[in-house]
Design goal:
This protein is mainly β. The chain has no helices and ten strands.
């Protein structure tokens, strides 16, 4: 597989540090050729676990960005998200890139209505 360099991408993705939202040196996330079409799976996030992305045997990748400045979000694959052991915490400004799973993705916030973007490829 070939990789696209950041000059090839019309809108490159950037990593953030998950604490301050600083992009630092602007490290790009390089999308592989054939990564598929982006489907926006962003949903309103509450303090209860909600399925954001259904199981998909054709999925290549899920990108999740917590754009909220103060609220943590928690994600889990194939089971309910919780604010404890068993779920992955994404802090304010944080980012999670998941490859290689076809399971459903569940999400919840530590407070209601954090701004979260979820893309499926």
């Amino acid at each position: 597989m070939s990789y696209l360099d950041r000059t090839t991408l019309a809108r490159p993705f950037y990593l953030v540090d998950g604490i301050t939202g600083d992009t630092g040196s602007g490290a790009a996330i390089f999308m592989r050729d054939g990564a598929g079409t982006k489907t926006d799976r962003s949903i309103p996030v509450t303090t209860s676990s909600t399925q954001a992305v259904p199981a998909n045997p054709d999925r290549k990748r899920i990108l999740i960005q917590n754009q909220d400045a103060a609220v943590n979000v928690f994600v889990n694959l194939g089971a309910s998200a919780t604010n404890g052991i068993g779920s992955i915490k994404i802090g304010p400004g944080g980012f999670l890139d998941i490859e290689g799973t076809t399971q459903a993705l569940n999400i919840m916030g530590s407070a209601a209505n954090p701004t979260v973007t979820i893309w499926e490829f």
